[in-house]
Amino acid sequence: MKVSTRGDYASRALLSLVLHQADGPTSVRDIVERTALPQPYLEQILLALKGAGLVRSKRGVGGGYVLARGPEEITLADIVSAVDGPIQAGDFGLPHTDGACEHEGQCVLLAVWWDAGERMREYLTGYTLADMAAMAQGDAPWPPVSASR
Q1: Domain presence at residue 101
Q2: pLDDT, tens digit, for every residue of 56-68?
Q3: How far apart are CA 57 and CA 85, in angstroms?
Q4: Would you say residue 34 lies in a domain?
């Protein structure tokens, strides 16, 4: 499983909003300057995040984007799902529960792929924007990085 560029960019943009939320609404230009994300792509991502109810926009002088909910209420799973759709290991459908497999090995593999997607959803749900901000500001330890691939 791989988080897409859209998922990464969306997470980076929202983290920037959290880290500067005391400044009020943040313009797309300010997010671009802080994160080095490409502006046209970021604008599309912010529209998707707005449609998912994760950010609100304010027009005019002093306008920009703000979080629609508190950073402790927005998980990485929410962000990735908003821009990429459901978090899953693949588009294989639901596992069979009655053993009615049409092809050899199908049932067991469907169950494994489903479980892998579920574990990723659970993992990303375990991190909120508030957690990410605390880590970025040095107020919380970073997650361990495994050297194995």
Answers
A1: no
A2: 999 888 889 999 9
A3: 22
A4: yes
